[in-house]
Amino acid sequence: MAQRSVIVVGGGVMGLATGCALAGHGARVTVLERYSIAHEWASSHGLSRAIRHEYGPLEIYTRMVARSLVLWDELARETGRHLYTEAGVLTLGHTGDGETREGYDVMRSAGLPVELLSAEECHRRFPQFTPQDYDVITYNPRGGFLAATDCVQALGQRLRAQGGELREGVRVVRVEGAGEGGHVLLEDGSVLEADRVVVTAGPWVHDVLPELPLPVRATRQQVCYLRGLPQDSFGVGSFPVFLAGMDYYGFPLHGPDLFKVGIHIYGGDVDPNQPYDASMEEVERIRTFLRQLIPSAAAAPFALVDRCMYDVSPDEDFILDKLPDAPGVILGSGFSGHGFKFGVLIGELLAALALDETPEFPLDRFSLSRFS
Fold this sequence. Notes:
Layout: E1 5-9, H1 13-24, E2 28-33, E3 49-51, H2 59-79, E4 84-86, E5 89-93, H3 100-109, E6 115-117, H4 119-125, E7 136-140, E8 144-146, H5 148-161, E9 165-168, E10 172-178, E11 181-186, E12 191-194, E13 196-199, H6 205-208, E14 217-226, H7 231-234, E15 241-244, E16 248-250, E17 259-263, H8 280-293, H9 295-298, E18 302-312, E19 319-323, E20 326-333, H10 343-354
């Protein structure tokens, strides 16, 4: 096929990265975003996202993180932006949790300089933490956080530089397969045709693929920001990105000197078209957690709550596949609150599917057929 035309539905990190990868391979690309890129309800907006190699026994994710870091660095150099801050990652877990020690073993096998710390060693190195409730603790100096909104804007910059088209404020009401290609029906009644359609609609996936029996749910999530903490104790270089029990997470001070901490536990189901209010009850849960693990941060003044949504698959693995009855439609979904760090790589993988090329990583784990 000559220059292949591809429409990407959804202009978050996954859709923009896919558009960039396709344009880089010579495709004629249009990315459609129903709002604006990095809008306040998007799963891809905000100050930061963690980038960590810690994935328990799931070695494929650890390898994918390593590759993603290389690709983010290339994007940063190309666009002249600072996208990644290496702050180190501290993981606090328990014997038998199936994650922490297993992740340490995988990272060691991958050649990462990860250390296994006792609670006493952890407190000595990071005196902000009182980790007596955790008996398996790892510290990996590789890893940190991405500037989320800047990453999305950098991808938009790359897409335009490569000749791709980004159309914001365009609402897609349905995507349909059409032979080897696809049709995209817009709210204004018009229909766009392309050789391939890639759907990366995040929590809105059911809006655009209403007849697909896809077991992905949209969940309400929020992140708490505190202010007034000292740079010498909570800044980059003194305080790491941390994961506690894989339920709570936090970052060193960044942006306007804000301390970010959140709960990774999936919230209740939401309609992505109906905004929801922040939960101060969840803010209090975070303060209770901080009193136990990071007591010097627990009383810090409250700054703001940021809200977003996850698109959650039943097994928390991604979905990267062609639709079984419409091979011209490729789906990227189910990113389950841990996909952003892989965004630039996932774009390459989805582009390979759209161009009938062999992806860099095997995609069996991410197939739709696992839900059959």
